Amino acid sequence: MTDEMTEIDWTDAETFSRALERADTREKGNFFEAFGEGDLIEHDPGLTLTQWGNEAWMSQTLNHDPAYWRTDAARDRGFDEPPIHPDYLTAATLGITVEDLSEKGGYFLGRTDVRFPGTPVYTGTELRVESEVVSTATSSSRPEYGIVTWRTRGRDAETDEVLCSYERTNMIPRREPVATDGGGSAATAEEPDEPALPSEFVTPDGGAFEDFREALERADDRDAAVAYRHERGRTQDDTTVAGLPLATLNTAKQHHNADVMADSPSGDIVTYGDVTRSTALGHARSDEDTYREVGFDDETFHTFVTPGDTVYAFTRVLEAEDADRDEAGTVRFEHIAFNQNDEPVYSGTRTAEIRKRSS
After folding, report:
1. CATH class of 197-359
2. pTM (2 d.p.)
3. What is the CATH number of domain 28-181?
4. Burial of 80: CB neighbours in 10 Å, binned 0-12, 13-18, 19+
5. Residues annotated as region Disordered (predicted)?
């Protein structure tokens, strides 16, 4: 090292500014070109599903099912102890993948086929996550992006059992934009006519399986839908916007780098989509007697949720079928999360077993 080098005051503001201009940035994440159909990606480091993480997630997203909080209620549901909540398991499975798959940014286009095992997952389980590239495609409307779909599986690191799996699709920035015909941006079709809403909205009398089935029967053969909104809201704060993503190892700059996001379309850091989703589901579950989550499909995030926004929920009941168990029947819902401006921010279908009155 030369004498001149040792005499440099690297913390002098002007000197340090000039050093930053010349220094390369060690970037995180992968561009679109890094993904090839059939690639299998093992995500490090994995995550131990803890009681603290589980309860923090449930409490902050208003999921208050007693079977996940109290041993007596858990045993009444057939669990040995309060298990890991499916929303926390889903968020942890996705959070671990962010650095490898989507940290570069790009729009979350959707997730579907979210499934869980029939057996409960308990605290202390060590989660190992892998993703397979299902497909890659060019975006005709955004030449600076490509479209990637992954099949992700969260496994028990000890037994290799699949604990959570889903398929998700994202736009991913390209290292180099490609030439396209611009076909995705030139359409100027006429505005479609607004579809007519049902003339009547039916609200279930309670939260038991029979209440949902009877509401659907009342709506049958009429211009009616079983649809209702939930009273609670949850305003986004530091915990939901930054704390919960970090607890799932979700390092995306969208949730943590306010200076970078100030120049983004959202204008601010944004809430992790699984926080928005889980909050809306927590509102919905507060008006039903949930027995077990089966799965989720056709999940879409419609616009940004930023600090200070309030997440509300709206539910439509699609069908109710008796299951081969005395305790519960199966109900399929559509849930829509919306903000204080009544703008949809998330939507998806959910299948759950709902407790029967007789149980």
Report:
1. alpha beta
2. 0.91
3. 3.10.129.10
4. exposed
5. 174-205
